[in-house]
């Protein structure tokens, strides 16, 4: 009914050659492991994109980690959605907590970036999630609902159908702390119910919702076995082909 996706986020790691060789390894290793309606996505730094996109397959797609909200122009150092699309990328991560936190990306800016991505036929992997303080304060459902309302709920149902969501509790990203399968499932079910209230049950059921935050070969299977977890957004463990492959395989047992 909905696509299962395991997406790697290389962040600002790997030089050009290292990235190419990791991507080739991933393509070779996963070719017999990606079953049914499952997709692997690798989101690399811009420098790798055009080269790895040439090696992409029907099972392994390529994505960027950011785009500028404008179509083109005098924005030194930035990269546009149409440029990313032109090299063959299919996805773009938007709303990652590192972009929100270190680069001050607000919900309003992210809504603009979502529009620009869709206009250029890039599928947003839109990240939402609460900080440690917000979890401890117990208002994380409100935080997540607001991120959805301000980041993507301006979209029509037809537009929203192209969006992949990623629930990434900020306290679990790169920290080694993972949300328990029950904690993650509770939030994923809340997100799906929120989508159903906005867009109807059918579209909510068709939406891929990934979990991200210290997902690794030893916890992936338990996380992916949850009813509303449709895959993962993987940071650190996507930099080692064997670990990434184990996470991809963890899905096959679902
Ligand atoms: C991420 O960057 O989206 C992420 C989930 O990182 P990590 O897996 O390293 O926690």
Question: What do these coordinates show?
Answer:
With 254 residues, this protein is α/β, with parallel strands linked by helices. 45% of the residues lie in helices and 15% in strands. The protein has 12 helices and 8 strands. Strands 1-2-3-4-5-6-7-8 form an 8-stranded parallel barrel, surrounded by 6 helices. α1 (16-30) runs parallel beside α12. The radius of gyration is 17 Å and the shape is globular. Phosphoenolpyruvate is lined by residues 9, 168, 173-174, 212-215, 233-237.
Structural descriptors:
8 strands, globular, 254 residues, eight-stranded parallel beta barrel, binds phosphoenolpyruvate, alpha/beta, 15% strand, TIM Barrel
Write the layout of secondary structure elements.
Blueprint (H helix, E strand, L loop, with lengths): L3 E6 L6 H15 L7 E6 L2 H10 L4 E5 L16 H6 L4 E4 L2 H6 L4 H13 L3 E6 L3 H6 L2 H12 L5 H4 L3 E4 L13 H19 L1 H6 L2 E4 L7 H5 L6 E4 L6 H12 L2
Parallel strand pairs: 1-2, 1-8, 2-3, 3-4, 4-5, 5-6, 6-7, 7-8
This protein binds phosphoenolpyruvate.
Phosphoenolpyruvate binds next to strand 8.
Largest sheet: 8 strands, parallel, barrel
Question: Tell me, what's the shape?
Answer: globular
Helix-strand string: EHEHEHEHHEHHHEHHEHEH
User: Largest sheet, order of strands side by side?
Assistant: 1-2-3-4-5-6-7-8
Distance between the termini: 14 Å
Bound molecules: phosphoenolpyruvate
User: Radius of gyration from the CA trace?
Assistant: 17 Å
What is the CATH topology? TIM Barrel
Strand content: 15-25%
Provide the domain count: 1
> What's the number of extended β-strand segments?
8
* CATH architecture call: Alpha-Beta Barrel
Helix content: 40-55%
């Amino acid at each position: 009914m909905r696509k299962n996706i395991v997406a790697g986020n290389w962040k600002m790691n790997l030089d050009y050659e290292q990235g190419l060789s990791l991507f080739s390894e991933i393509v070779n290793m996963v070719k017999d492991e990606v079953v049914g309606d499952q997709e692997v996505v690798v989101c690399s730094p811009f420098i790798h994109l055009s080269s790895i996109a040439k090696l992409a397959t029907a099972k392994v797609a390529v994505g960027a980690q950011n785009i500028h909200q404008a179509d083109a122009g005098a924005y030194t150092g930035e990269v546009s959605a149409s440029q990313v699309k032109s090299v063959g990328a299919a996805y773009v991560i938007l709303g990652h907590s590192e972009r929100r936190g270190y680069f001050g990306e607000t919900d309003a800016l992210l809504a603009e970036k979502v529009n620009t991505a869709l206009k250029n036929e890039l599928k947003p992997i839109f990240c939402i999630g609460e900080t440690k303080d917000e979890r401890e304060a117990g208002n994380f459902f409100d935080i997540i609902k607001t991120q959805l309302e301000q980041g993507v709920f301006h979209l029509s149902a037809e537009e929203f159908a192209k969006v992949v969501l990623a629930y990434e509790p900020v306290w679990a990203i790169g920290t080694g702390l993972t949300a328990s399968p029950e904690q993650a499932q509770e939030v994923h079910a809340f997100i799906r119910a929120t989508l159903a209230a906005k867009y109807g049950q059918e579209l909510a059921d068709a939406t891929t919702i990934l979990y991200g935050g210290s997902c690794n070969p030893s916890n992936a299977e338990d996380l992916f076995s949850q009813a509303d977890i449709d895959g993962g957004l993987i940071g650190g463990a996507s930099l080692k082909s064997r670990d990434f492959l184990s996470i991809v395989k963890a899905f096959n047992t679902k």
